[in-house]
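Morning, I've got a small favour to ask if you have a moment. I owe you a coffee for this, so here goes:

…
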Amino acid sequence: MFRRNSAGATDGTAQDSQDVKDNGAPAKDRPATQAGKGRPTPKRSEAERNRYQSIGGGRTSGTRSTTSSKPARELTPEEKQRLKDRDRSERQRRMDAMKRGEDWALGPRDKGPAKKIARDYVDAHRRPSEYYMYVLVLLLVVIFSHDKALTNYSAYIVYALIAAIVIDGFFIRRGLAKILAERLPGTTTRGLTMYAVMRALQIRRMRMPAPQLKPGDKV
């Protein structure tokens, strides 16, 4: 009996001594959450906050800081007007460069030396495809006229128009492949034929980039 009590007392004394050594205070004077591991159990929010660490070395929970940054200075009417004028000038400069066909201002669809050659090749020739839009307008007039005789003839006009586009596309492809083989040997012509045909179908003054060559000019 006395041995059990002595052993228990010895164990308790050793535990208290260890607690005093670790934390500098007796175990009975510390909270229950701190007595077992020498430190208080952190709250869930604190544990999640310490789980993440930013690139700079600081710890963060991955959420946006609740502290608001310093508000930006309100622009004066004169500054706003200067910004508008600068943006308008930049848009106009880019539009002018696009019309001239400068590569830096063009979109991905029109970029590249092969696309430039395809545009010049189409613009340097008078092609039946460029009258496609005019014929479409004529067909719409015929359809809305409700004249049976004209409506019957409109089908033949459509067939003739499709045939003209197909034949013109064949000649565009052949001529474009020849000039690319001379100017840019080894360049793939994939997609260039359709690009050139779609440009040929547009009215000349509505093409973008604007034509740099006139009909009859050498490519």
